[in-house]
Amino acid sequence: MNKPSFERPLMADCVPDLVATARGDLKATLVIRGGTLVNVISGEILPDMSVAVQGARIAYVGKDVSHTIGEHTRIIEAEGKYIAPGLLDGHCHIESTQMKVTEFARAVLPSGTTGGFFDPHEISNVLGLKGLRLMLDEARTTPMAAYMQVASCVPSTHPGLETTGAYIGPEEVAEALSWGPDMIGLGEVMNFPGVVYGDETMIGEIQATLRAGKVADGHFTWAADDWRLPAYAASGVTGDHECVTKEDVVERLRLGMYAKMRQGSAWHDVAETIKACTELGLDTRRMMLVTDDRSSESLLKEGHMDFVVRLAISQGVKPVTAFQMATINTAERFGVARDIGAVIPGNIADIILLDGRLADVRVGMTIAAGHVVAEKGKMTAVWDSFTYPEEALNTVKLEANIQPKDMELAAPIMEGAIGAKIIHVTENHVDTKEKHVPVAVQNGKVVVSTTGDICKIAVLERHKQTENKAVALVGGIGFTRPAAIAMTVAHDSHNLLIIGNDDALMAEAGNRVIRMQGGVAVITGDKATEFPLRIAGLMSTESFEEVAVQSAAISDALQSAGCTLNNAFMTLSLLALVVIPELRLSDKGLVRISADGIELVSLFDQKVEHTSN
Question: Is the pTM of this model over 0.70?
Answer without folding.
Answer: yes
